[in-house]
Amino acid sequence: MSPNVLALLPEIILTITGVLVMVAEPVLPAGQSRKPLGVLAILGTLAAGFASWYQLGFGTIHAYFNTIQVDSFSVFFHLLIAAIVLVTLLSSLDYFEGHASHAGEYFALTLFGATGMMLMTCSVELLMVFVGLEISSISTYILAGFRKGQASATESSIKYFLLGSFATAFFLYGIALAFGSTGSTRIDVISQNLASTATPTLALLSLALIIIGIGFKVSAAPFHVWTPDVYQGAPAPVVGLMSTAPKAAAFAVLLRILFSGFPSYEPRWASLIWIIAALSMTVGNLGALLQRDVKRMLAYSSIAHAGYLLVAYTAFPADGIASACFYTAAYAAMNVGAFTVITQIGGYRENVRTIEDYSGLALKRPVLAAVLGFFLLSLIGIPFTGGFFGKFYVFSAALHAGHVWLAVIGLLNSGIACFYYLRLLASLYSRRPAIEDNLFDGITVTLPAALALTITAAATLLLGIAPNQVLSLAQRSAAATAPGSANSTTNASR
Amino acid sequence: MPADFLWLIPLLPFTGFLINGTLGRRLPRPLVAAIALIPTALSAILWISLWFSMKAPGAPESIQSVASLFGNTSWIAISGFHVDFAFSVDHLTLIMLGVVTCVGFLIHLYSVGYMAHEEGYWRFFAYLNLFMFFMLVLVLAANFLLLFVGWEGVGLASYLLIGFYFKKDSAANAGKKAFVVNRIGDFGFLLAMFLLIAHFGSLDFTTIFTAVNQHPEWQGGFLTAIALLLVVGATGKSAQIPLYVWLPDAMEGPTPVSALIHAATMVTAGIYMVARSHAIFDRSPYALGVVAIIGAATALFAACIGMVQHDIKRVLAYSTVSQLGYMFLACGVGAYTAGVFHLLTHAFFKALLFLAAGSVIHALSGEQDMRKMGGLRKRIPVTFWTMTMGVFAIAGLPPLAGFFSKDEILFRAFVSPNPIGKLLWLVGLITAGMTSFYMFRLWFKTFFGAERFEEHHDSHGHDAHGHGGVHESPLVMTLPLMVLALLSIIGGWVGVPEALGGHDEIGAFLEPVLSSTGVTVTEVVSHGTEIGLAAISVLVALTGLFAAYVLYYKKPGTAATYAQRFPALYRLVENKFYIDELYQAVIITPLLMFTRIVLGIAIDGGVVGGSAAAATATTRGLGSLVRRVQSGNIRSYAGWLALGAAAVIAVMIFGYTH
Lengths: 494, 658
Fold this sequence. Notes:
Chain A is mainly alpha-helical and 494 residues long. Helices cover 73% and strands 1% of the residues of chain A. Chain A is built from 21 helices and two strands. In chain A, α14 packs parallel to α18 (386-400). By secondary structure, chain B is mainly α. Chain B is 70% helix and 3% strand.
């Protein structure tokens, strides 16, 4: 197999599957179930995941004139994205049944989005990153509005599209300036040429613009304003997807750019990231306190989690990258899990919206309530869950680098966070108010959805009990991205 | 017993939890009870065999066992720092294990009778076993992280059990409150752990304490910081000022839960943690002083509130807070052994008092108000006699358990080098008098005087047991009462000081673990002084008894007259000094206000309005969407983005570099 094909094998598989689904969609008669297309998409995702795993055996693969680099870092995120997409597809296999025509497009768009995200994580050239970013963004813009006919969905889609394009422009402009100041758009060449650049201010400006663009994608404050509106209107399974997978890809890109591309500017960007992290955690958590709508609340919670994750970027490279990778995985497991439950409870109509609507769920559907409760505990950061270890690792890495106050802000924030998660948790386990209605009567958990719940719950638990496998993979990723700095962390005992 | 079997001790209750948690709903009640009780009993038996193997001459002072999970010996390994799934047992752990397994088993047994008529029988026992699992992990842990896992786990089980009657709002709210307050404590604990990692590169007890002992030049400084942060954690779990507020509300849970979790085991975890980390505390007189003052203040404050409560369980709850204050005080004056000794005796008599109170409540079909009790002495004799033992023990009358442990603490405070040692002793002494008063008040009001309850043959009240009439509890409930009563009598005899002709066995037993290197220098006092101090505290206890006798037996009603004479003061104390209201007004309301104002107006105009606007858009359809786009919502968002971008660029280019 030529290295070019090998390097993009997962993306190629996803694209072919996506095209097949897209072509089959109009051929199927209207009104017929689109589930076979969903199954095809699931198989394609599985194959892409295995292809990624297969790539791990080849060490570092360089392809397409060194614009693509597949290493353990890329594979880590490939596998993560494949897993998120797999769970999303499983949980939404029956979501559109009987509600939307052309549901096949949904499956195809999900695959295309995944292609773009995977491309982002294995590109080491900024324009190639941009191509991946656009493929993934455009797919998600459409997916956000997929509950056709619902005004809130259309609003969500349009807002996401307009603001997203605005942010993309920043990113693109940043690339242009990076080229202007260093003469290249390849991350490794940028890093080499930075020392001798005649225009360091231009390079700083380019980095700032890139951070702005990525900051929007990961919904870090102050670029978070779109998040609650978009999440509230988008279909629940899509929110599960877009709050994790594109963010994981964007975080990966930011890791590569900061730690491989601009390591010499670390003193500059670290203090900027410090501020963004503190702001995101605080805005996210305080904002979530005020929400009654569960999806809006989780939107603010995802802003806060972006903040926790950014704390890792202020740490030493080896610690920082590994803990960021780990946190991304842990966050993905619990957040996709939570949205999977919400998908099952709300259904296509999403008539269960507010925290009060969820009250008494434990009486009617004890298992679903328990699973959602488990994910909420993980989001709070209780031991024996992935959420705890993620936070623990990130904060200890930041402390290691001497950022005591950031860790204190983070811990205070996770204290505040328990208020709103708990409000939902308490609502699940409270008595239903006097007006007895049948909100939960229509819930049917299908086999694929049950499988999706099992996968996410098991992953959340496993990341809390036996995190070592993922930790060691995360550490290998760190070594792949910042090879020179792997030894720079010392055991800081006195 | 080989170290490899250590694993079984927590794992046994965990299997009970798994079985009952998954299948319990479909199993008959006796089977559910058996599944919960047998593993607990086996754990207790394992503890006994462990005890004998460690008491044997030549036995090691501590044994360790590291488990491997999926072929990895370390649980997490990150850059130069690793944590193992490691358990260890030394003499301190041995005592804690004994309390948890034995008292735990007795309370399991009691619950079989107490919960017999409750819904969710299987759920209750599953949670109870889950609690046992985490509590055993907590005391067996060989490093701070595993201890923290147990710490959070017992918390979780406790919230589940407090909120057990989740159809009742007050129970659900109490569970929530416990959770939130404990998170504040956890914040301190986590920071302490991070500091430990930063300074020692490890969370392992042996590594850290050995390092501290090897560096006598480390005094105060970062050790004070770590110690104070640990104290924050301990005040949360052990319900000390300022974080005690959750414990009285936790009484919403079923009574056996109050006995097990909120009296005998979980709430003592903070004291255990401080005693365990004494190597760190010994280096920081400042942190020790804080511990001592918190302890003394909590003891006095909670005792004040306890004197005027009417709910029998609330009296006991405040009493628990107060007694935990004593243990804190003991740790604060460097008398860790005395603290652990009181922890042990308190586990016996407070578990007894709660279970007996549960038996009273059971007899009265759910009545908890002491104003509606009275004269129960003859109706429920076993409960009466066993509870009497508990009351005498906690009041500190010799030769019962509470006398020896409380007296040890008071004595240690008196002779401690702490500049305010004498004051601490005085506060402890006054508290002892108040303890005796409110316990005998409870005793007289419940068991003596006129019968003020109604005999109803229908069931009502939350602890409703669908069988009417005042009746003694079944044997399955009274048997644990009798065992605990016996322990409350003789439990203190392991720590009789030499001045009173004993040998202080528990002191010698804990010597290898708790021998402190820092503050052992105490005034040398004669045995005469010690005996004199003991005599004073007995006298004070008798005064409390006499006051209660006069006010609640001899001339009932005089208490109300006194209360009327100082209405403001009485109302202040009765309403628990309005601390809950104060927290609400000073912390919670401003936080919410701040959030609303800052987020609603200053940072993001769309946050609060946005949700309402989005809801309107949903109803009005696409037309309103277009209007809103034109009305500038997206434009304002884009404006925020641009502003943020400008700020980011400014910080990047002109910003400070660290």
